[in-house]
Amino acid sequence: ILYQAENVHTSITCCCSPQAKQKNATLRPTPTDHHFIVALLGHIDMRLTTARRTKCLLFSERCILVSALAGIAFSLIAYSVLHSLAVQNVGIFDPSSSRMPVSPLTILNSAATAMATIVSRHDTAATQVRTASTTGLEFVHLTKTAGSAIEEAAARSGVKWGVCHWKRVKKFGPVCLYKDWEITRPAYNRSAIPFQFKGSLGEPWHTPPHWFRENPYVGSTTFCVVRDPYERMVSEYYSKFGGYNGADRNNVTVMNVWMKKRLSPQAKKQVHRLPQHLYVYNLEGSRVIDHVLRFEHLDSDFTSLMERYGLGVALPQRMNVRNATTSMLTTANLTDDTIQMINEHYGADFLLFNYSKVKDSSEMLMVRHFKT
User: Fold this and answer.
1) Per-residue pLDDT tens digits for 171-190
2) Are the C-beta atoms of residues 93 and 12 closer than 8 Å to each other?
3) Which of 148, 160, 165, 183 could form a disulfide with 132 if both were Cys (CB 3.0 to 4.6 A apart)?
4) Three-state SS across the chain?
5) 38: which residues sit within 8 A by CB, 6+ positions away?
6) What is the pTM of this model?
7) Do 357 and 343 meet the contact criterion of CB atoms below 8 Å apart?
């Protein structure tokens, strides 16, 4: 058994076999009570940190208290084992020393002090999580508009947005380790939803807020990101969530057939391809999202919004960048038929968010040329 404490140049080694005992007879450590406690509790702290990340999802006082008590109990068990080994002279303490191993009271006092420090750190994380959503600003996640990058950047800055309200996402850090929003049944206000979208709507964090029967965004200022419909549709095609992942994904015909099938009137309507105006405007035409940022200049738009609300959330340098070797097709590969279907399906998006609409593939190539 080896306990190694960080920043402490002492380790406690237990070698219980006769061969090991003989081999290490001249290398027996003589740790002080302090070194023993620090080394032991260093191990316990590591275990508790792991427990906090994986088990203490709500950062509740009960969870942390149980972890602390478990650490103290572990200390006492370790004391009993080490005391027994010391009495048997197996190399834990210098046999020439008359000093007894550390006492149970020393163990308890040191464990209690160390646990208080550990719990304090856990409480700090808990406070960060509990206050994460007190900013007054909430993010509405339209698909394929850098939403996941925004949610992760926010979570790592102590702000809980989007998916983190609805789902546990471990890779986003402690802020996203528990959900605080639940869907109440019936979930949707059907009178607020266009008739063609009244089927299963999918993930709640991708659902227009005003479609919920009980809107969880009420009372908050909201923002979202919109994107050129042509570019967004290509991104949907390459998406690992509902996109096409076949070996022939870079085939022009395959991409256009895939798009036309999903944009047809008979296709099942899903939030992953909802027109963007349905998030920003309700059926009466009233705007229901406070701030609309544009994907095309998101860095400046997002930075300005964060400064306005005094939030320290910063987007990563590389964000939602497709791999050019595996995702080779662009809007230049859209056929005339596909362009017409996108124009019809996302007509209001072009109009309301001032995106340029093209008539055919020739005009698309011309527009791309001028952009570059």
Assistant:
1) 998 889 888 898 888 888 98
2) no
3) 160
4) CEEECCCCCCEEECCCCHHHHHHCCCCCCCCCHHHHHHHHHHHHHHHHHHHHHHCCCCCCHHHHHHHHHHHHHHHHHHHHHHHHHHHCCCCCCCCCCCCCCCCHHHHHHHHHHHHHHHHHHHHHHHHHHHCCCCCCEEECCCCCCCHHHHHHHHHHCCCCCCHHHHCCCHHHCHHHCCCCCCCCCCCECHHHCCHHHCCCCCCHHHCCHHHECCCCCCCCEEEEEECCHHHHHHHHHHCCCCCCCCCCCCCHHHHHHHHHHHHCCCCCCCHHHCCCHHHHECCCCCECCCEEEEHHHHHHHHHHHHHHHCCCCCCCCCCCCCCCCCCCCCHHHCCHHHHHHHHHHCHHHHHHCCCCCCCCHHHHHHHHHHHC
5) 5, 8
6) 0.67
7) yes
Q: Which residue has the tokens 């096409």?
A: 244
Residue 352, class by beta-carbon neighbours within 10 Å (0-12 exposed, 13-18 middle, 19+ buried)? middle
CB-side neighbour CA atoms (13 Å) of 208? 24
Length in residues, the chain: 372
Q: Is the peptide bond before 186 cis (omega within 30 degrees of 0)?
A: yes
HSE on the CB side for 111, CA within 13 Å? 23
Sheet containing 221-226, strands listed edge to edge, beginning at the edge strand earlier in sequence: 137-139, 221-226, 291-294
Strands 11-13 and 2-4: antiparallel
Identify whether the C-beta of residue 282 lies closer than 8 Å to the C-beta of residue 288.
yes
Model pLDDT for residues 20-69, shown as the tens digit of each residue: 444 444 333 344 444 455 555 555 555 555 444 444 444 444 555 566 66
Name the residue with tokens 């040329």.
Answer: 369
Find how far residue 264's CA is from the centre of its chain: 34
Radius of gyration of the chain (CA): 30
Please give the span between the terminal C-alpha atoms of the chain, in angstroms, as a whole number. 63
